Amino acid sequence: MITCHIRYIVDQDKLPEFETYARMWLELLPRFGGTHHGYFLPSEGESDVALGLFSFPSFAAYEDYRRKAATDPEVAKAMAYAKETRCFLRYERSFFRPVGTEG
């Protein structure tokens, strides 16, 4: 199993738009075989960081998701929404594997 950690730099004035974007992916990702662990938005204080976590059974399964998502109309809609609203400025993606479990 691999888990993808996405760290977003968000526009604090557009947190409702980012939440809409996140909810789109909460529904989309499982259609491609992934398990979404959720999005985490700034709660208190000054923060422009939001997090997203999701897993796939293997890196090959993740790569398959990326290929399929590239031509999916609902994914295109989510990406267009993010571009239109500019609800996040940038993101970085990291991958992790669990220790002490099979996979």
UniProtKB/TrEMBL annotation:
User: What sequence ranges are listed for the domain NIPSNAP?
Assistant: 6-99
**One Pfam assignment:** NIPSNAP
For this protein, the record's InterPro entries field holds: Dimeric_a/b-barrel, NIPSNAP
Q: Which domain of life is it from?
A: Bacteria
Protein name per its UniProtKB record? NIPSNAP domain-containing protein
- What species is given as this protein's source? Inquilinus ginsengisoli
